[in-house]
Amino acid sequence: MELRKNYFADVRKDDLHEIGQPRARSDSPGHVTGKTAFFADRNFPGMLHLKMVRSPHHHARIRSIDTSEAEKHPGVVKILTARDVPHNVYTILILIQIGPEDETVLADGKVRWKGEAVVAVLAETERAAQEAAAKVKIDYEVLPAVFDMEEALKPGAPLVNEYHGQNYYLYDSGECRKVRFGDVEAGFAGADYVLEQSYQSSPIEHAPTETTGCVVAPEGNDRFTCYTNTQAMFFTLDNASIILQMPGNKLHFVGGTVGGGFGGKVDVIVEPIAILGAKLTGRPVSFIYSREEEMQISSPRAAEKVVIKDGVMKDGRIVARKVTGYTDAGAYSRHSPYGAQKGAGHYPGPYTIPNVWIDTYCVYTNRTPSSAMRGFGVTIGDFALEVQMDKLARLIGMDPLEFRFINAYRDGDMKAHRQPTEGAALIECMQEASRAANWPVAEKYMTMSSYAKGA
Amino acid sequence: MAIRRGRGVAAINYPTGMNLGGDPTQALVHSTPTGNFMVTLSSVDLGQGMKQIMAQICAETIGVPTDRVVVDTADTDTGPHCMGTFASRGTHRAGNAVIQAAREARQVMLEVAAEELEVNASDLETDGQGNILVKGAPQRSISVFDVALSAHFKRGRSISGRGMFLIPRSYPEKETGAMKPSTCYAHACTVAEVEVDDETGEVTVLTVKNIFEIGRALNPKMVEQQLVGGSWMGISHALYETTEPYYPNRDHGGTDFNQYLMPGPGDLAETEIIVLERPSADGPYGAKGPGEMCANPQIPAVANAVFDAVGVRIDTLPITPERILRALKAQAPN
Question: Record keywords: Glycoprotein included (chain A) (predicted)?
């Protein structure tokens, strides 16, 4: 890595002692010698292991649940179903007033995705819990499922989630988050070329080294200590408090070093049910995802579809951009209404465009619920935007890097969401890229600046 | 049939912190009797090194070496609230909270030192080595060690501070979408070079040159590890990863690292990282959040390079050999 101190030297003081120094990490010796403690290093006498019975169907009504055989399995201590969970229907963003509550801790009457948790088995060993889980008998009536966002949005599509009442998240702005800036249709009408293209992605796994999990110990003072690798301590504690209808002062969450998160550990899935198990049995409980659960059960990055329509002039100016973004939330909200909305704030990308129209939808399907992941709401949008930029440049016969200079935002430029640009640095990144990659551009672009025009 | 070479570029920006704000983080700082400093948080270190960065920020602000600072975090019984470690917010939000707490503690430290040296606190400065000096007369000094002992056992002062950082929540206007998504943005530009085998559809990423503008590299070695890792993740997203390769048929979803396709060491490109620093107005020492954005520009850069190499657009991720071959076949003259 190289630091290029010549850029922005006029707005930066390099007079610091500790900041900017490549100090060795104080925790790295522990990591490389195996001494760092992770949550799963906690082991308590009498600790129970929790395994989930999961839905084999994408969408089904639960006619009956029979746990009698499983209860007789050697080593089984407790079996939990929906009726054991004090506040079974929840949604995590209720803490920032983004409802409605739309998800069950344990399925109640219905499953909405393949892999949904229905019954929790607590046993003396992981093996006993796994074997007993296989003996739980659930009678399902399979329902029609919808897997495609466009299909889900059509009239007459199977309703995925009754708590929403329609297959999209209803924002205060309606069926999507909207940004309206200038007159996009007039922009298209006056453009030399109009290009509309569609981009798609598939769900992606966070692939942390350490799988999601927690270990819960009941304390002598009627409190519960939850050792967890959540990315958000109080967010998880407060949601657990709601789900368990247990005052927050009864809960003590202990984290530490986490073996990679990437957004995969902000969903509050394992902690509430493990604490409930500890409460109802009076014994410590361990609930740790297998690698298979981490990859196929825990929320992935959403599948997305992005449609971009641009009006561009022969001289390289983009005069209008319309973006329609679809985020596949799967069966439940989790963080997806937030992610889709974040996209609306991100488009049309780091470019100054006078006419912009943005709609971002959060769509429900019978897919594995998606949620936060590194670059949430933006990563796939950037793929779409920057491939579109390449296509536009080639359409008008312009160098793709020069084309970006023409449209790059600078300090003071008004963004589509009506905030003036501050602290821009796109131009300088591209100038350095031109040098580093030996990708020459015209001199006038190499002398441009992100600072306000005329400043 | 041939190996064809291409290159592509992408440029991006990325917001720091939770979209629309409203995501507070607090910090507490106090000195021990011998002049070491404890930073107490509930933020989570995801392995990216948050504890180390918070220690350096506290040390810089108080004016002592980093090894005099210990960070105690991720315990809800002791640490004040933090929204969490996500949305590229850890360094920015918690760092600002630590600065505020450390400034308050530093002020008490200087007041105690001023009493010991019989000067005004405003006439004192720290040397960054664990000493407090009279400005212009550095021979008149006292160690932080002695100041802390005095504060604890003689003067009855608590060298401590409270820090809180919150960007007030913005609510999007319903019809226009007028809003304030973020207060500062990191930037990047990536150029990728690839080879595509037009017989097998296989893509080899040869080089990735990443330019990242991150406000301030608080610890250059640590930000390098994050930026390089992010760059690899971008390649992985571009070419390999999906949990549902044949959705809605779930039979082929990967269930372990043998099945879930990611690049191995031999698949990773020669990676170059260049960092620019335009300090942000509200970042701790100007820092922005580089954690997420560093994995984004490689995806479109690789996609554009594939087009440059073989002339087909793959607009669906991941860009698999199968998709490339199908596109080449569709494009071929019959």
Answer: no
d(CA A104, nearest CA chain B) in Å: 23
Is pLDDT of B135 > 60?
yes
The band of A152, judged by pLDDT with boundaries at 50, 70 and 90, is very high
Q: Which CATH number fits domain A48-142+207-296: 3.90.1170.50, 1.20.1640.10, 3.20.20.80, 3.30.565.10?
A: 3.90.1170.50
pLDDT tens per residue, range B150-206: 999 999 999 999 999 999 999 999 999 999 999 999 999 999 999 999 999 999 999
- Choose the closest CB to B318 out of A12, A202, A253: A202
Q: What's the pTM value of the predicted model, to 2 decimals?
A: 0.97
| Mutate: best of B274, B280, B282, B306, partner A, most A CBs <10 A | B274
* Cβ-defined contact of B286 to A12 (cutoff 8 Å): yes
First and final CA of chain B: distance in angstroms?
16
Average pLDDT for chain B: 97
**Are B142 and B200 members of one domain?**
no
Residue B331 token pair: 């494009």
> B125 an active-site residue?
no
- Is there a contact between A233 and B51 if contact means CB atoms under 8 Å apart? no
Tokens read off for B165 = 């950082």
For residues B23 and B133, give the distance between their C-alpha atoms in angstroms, rounded to a whole number.
Answer: 38
Inter-chain residue contact B11 with A22, CB threshold 8 Å = no
* Of the partner residues B22, B79, B220, the one whose CB lies closest to the CB of residue A20: B220
| CB-defined contacts A:B, below 8 A | 405
The per-residue b/e assignment along A83-114, b for 16 or more CB within 10 angstroms, e otherwise, is ebbeebebbbbbeeebeebbbbbbbeebbbbb
Which sequence spans correspond to the domains of chain A? 48-142+207-296, 177-204+300-446
Q: How confident is the model at residue B38 (pLDDT cuts 50, 70, 90)?
A: very high
User: Quick one: pLDDT at residue A260?
Assistant: 95
Tell me whether residues B175 and A380 touch, CB distance under 8 A.
no
